[in-house]
């Protein structure tokens, strides 16, 4: 299946000279997955709500300030006849919800993660939430400020944060859109006073005041199709996964998690995805894949289905080299295992994370995989 029948010519376009205040209002009023940015009619880039939220530009600044070629997470450009599996992979690795689609080097339309998921819904009965969800999610306390929420969203590259009370029970969820909506409303209502002081007070507002409650949840036993249908119906990017008690958090499943599952293949080499590939400096994608395979091969009794490597750049630098955080997460026949670390430059960060990953993998040694189930899952996905 290719994306020719999934891509659409209907999208919102803004010029690089558009005021950021207008862009913020567009996200508030229409909740688009992303905006196509053009310069005199020529494609320039895609602007997401997350980028707008995490930016520090004023409302009077122009869109051009956020579409510089040097920015991280460049959005992939897809061919109209791209394979749906490759399109899903590129959206995930580009950390994008929307990507431009070209035909004969001309902008034809856009494709979204939602569009891909809607097109493959019937295939998602083969996967359960337990197969693709993320365990041990980042959470917030009810009294934590919005500033802390923004930092968590930025550092972990996520779009939602479960909120727990003092007993650790789930009470709400805060998303990128919730924060953007609150900031826009507060900015619109500010007519007097010091702007810096107003901004600081906004960051101190407890997340309890803006969180969504009650929370949309799902279970580990639910199929990915059921979870996706629930997300699409409510226009949510993710759901909290709970146990027998709806107040206890087992993890989070997002549309991105399901898109990532669409890229699972029975290829000769391990399926590895890298987020923020633009941060790679002295290390290559091939080297990263080989290093993870080397760790996996040491423990052949443990089957690794998929690896996700994510890099994040901090503001701190040493002799011009940025401090990078790296997280490696493996989905194995035993469950998920991860390792994380920091270093100056992507290669140093990756080596620290890989060392931590190997120590954690040791704890999973001796596990036997369910090859029959894995084969059924992959054969179903390969029907796409």
TrEMBL record:
SUPFAM superfamilies: CBS-domain pair
UniProt keywords, alphabetically: CBS domain
Residue ranges constituting the CBS domain according to the UniProt record: 69-126, 133-189, 211-272
PROSITE patterns, per the entry: CBS
Pfam family, one: CBS
Protein's UniProt keywords contain RNA-binding: no
Name of the protein in question: CBS domain-containing protein
Organism per entry: Natribaculum luteum
């Amino acid at each position: 299946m290719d994306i020719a029948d999934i891509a659409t010519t209907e999208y919102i376009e803004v010029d690089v000279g558009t005021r950021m205040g207008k862009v913020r209002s567009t996200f508030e009023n229409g909740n688009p997955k992303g905006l196509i940015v053009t310069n005199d009619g020529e494609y320039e880039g895609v602007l997401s709500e997350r980028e707008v939220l995490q930016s520090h530009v004023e409302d009077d600044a122009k869109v051009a300030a956020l579409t510089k070629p040097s920015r991280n997470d460049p959005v992939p450009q897809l061919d109209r006849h791209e394979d749906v599996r490759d399109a899903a992979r590129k959206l995930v690795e580009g950390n994008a919800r929307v990507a431009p689609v070209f035909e004969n080097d001309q902008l034809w339309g856009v494709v979204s993660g939602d569009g891909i998921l809607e097109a493959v819904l019937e295939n998602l009965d083969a996967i359960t939430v337990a197969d693709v969800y993320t365990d041990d999610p980042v959470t917030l306390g009810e009294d934590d400020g919005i500033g802390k929420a923004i930092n968590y969203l930025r550092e972990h590259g996520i779009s939602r944060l479960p909120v727990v009370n003092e007993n650790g029970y789930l009470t709400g969820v805060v998303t990128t859109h919730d924060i953007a909506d609150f900031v826009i409303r507060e900015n619109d209502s500010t007519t007097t006073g010091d702007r810096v002081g107003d901004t600081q007070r906004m960051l101190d507002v407890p997340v309890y005041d803006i969180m969504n409650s009650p929370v949309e949840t799902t279970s580990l036993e639910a199929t990915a199709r059921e979870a996706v249908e629930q997300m699409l119906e409510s226009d949510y990017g993710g759901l909290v996964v709970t146990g027998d008690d709806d107040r206890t958090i087992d993890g989070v499943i997002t549309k991105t998690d399901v898109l990532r599952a669409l890229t699972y293949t029975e290829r000769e080499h391990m399926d590895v995805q890298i987020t923020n590939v633009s941060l790679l400096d002295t290390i290559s994608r091939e080297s990263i894949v080989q290093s993870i395979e080397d760790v996996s091969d040491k423990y052949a009794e443990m089957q690794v289905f998929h690896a996700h490597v994510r890099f994040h750049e901090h503001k701190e630098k040493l002799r011009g080299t940025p401090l990078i955080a790296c997280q490696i997460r493996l989905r194995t026949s035993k469950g998920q295992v991860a390792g994380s670390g920091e270093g100056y430059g992507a290669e140093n960060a990756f080596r620290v994370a890989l060392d931590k990953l190997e120590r954690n993998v040791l704890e999973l040694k001796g596990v036997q995989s369910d090859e029959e189930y894995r084969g059924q899952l992959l054969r179903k996905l390969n029907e796409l």
